[in-house]
Amino acid sequence: MYALLLPGLVFLLLFKYTPMYGILIAFQDFNIFGGIGGSEWVGLAQFEKLIHSSDFMNVLINTLVISLYKIVILFPIPVLIALLLNEVKRMFFKRTIQTVIYLPHFLSWVIISGLFITILSPAGGLVNEIISSFGGHPVSFLTDNQFFRSVIVFTAGWKETGWNAIVFIAAIAGIEQEQYEAAAIDGAGRIRQMISITLPGILPTVVLMFILRIGSLLEAGTEQILTMYNPLVYQTGDVIGTYVYRLGLGQQDYSFSTAVGLFNSVVGFVLVLSGNMLSRKFLNRSIW
């Protein structure tokens, strides 16, 4: 049995732990020609630069705001979808709905970005055509700081909500049916069964997913934003991931971008530990 673990352990070692050697770049003035061994060691200088960077504070605020929007608005929706689908008894209709809401997950952000750039275009886009038909003026959703975050949250929900519901649907499937039968005999209706049986039954899964989501608070959707934003919306749309990308590849400041990424990872780790501790204290449920 232990031999069966070997391929997975080798994979983790090669692709997860070995690359962590590159963290050293965050403590160096990295020279791409000299490599890690030939670059000057500067200690915490990159982190001092990070703390005093006005751009980073704006990026951090953007990341937190977008992530909190996604948690507050998007996290409950898959739970609600799973609860509603569980009440659908016609299997053909249920499976059709599931398939339709799952499909966007399998599209890349490049495709989805192109789709919504076209739909939201101020020159002939479907949404602006509707706005104009009611006497309004075209809106530049993707170049206006007032609307950009809303577009990011909406498109993320459109793409991933159905797929995220799978976890909760699976959790509902694991609830013993005898509980529903006993509740029905006692006179409980569908809504009462949902509140008293289904919700408590999937609560451990909801807590688990919420803790994991808190841990990725500083991951606001780099790939998504990178394919949709532009310099006009850096003020509200530039997040840590895109900031690292622009500095690391755009300006070739590898040490500083690695320091930013390390900061991101450490904060995420602390958030997971804190979320798990608070969940264990107040809900008596935790990952470990």
TrEMBL record:
The keyword Cell inner membrane does not apply. Residues 60-275 form the ABC transmembrane type-1 domain. Keywords: Membrane, Transmembrane, Transmembrane helix, Transport. The chain crosses the membrane at residues 59-85, 106-127, 147-173, 194-214, 254-278. Its main location: membrane. Coiled coil: none annotated. It is found in: Cell membrane; Membrane. It is a multi-pass membrane protein. InterPro entries: MetI-like (IPR000515), MetI-like_sf (IPR035906). SUPFAM superfamilies: MetI-like (SSF161098). The keyword Transmembrane helix applies. Belongs to the binding-protein-dependent transport system permease family. This is ABC transporter permease subunit. It comes from Paenibacillus phytohabitans.
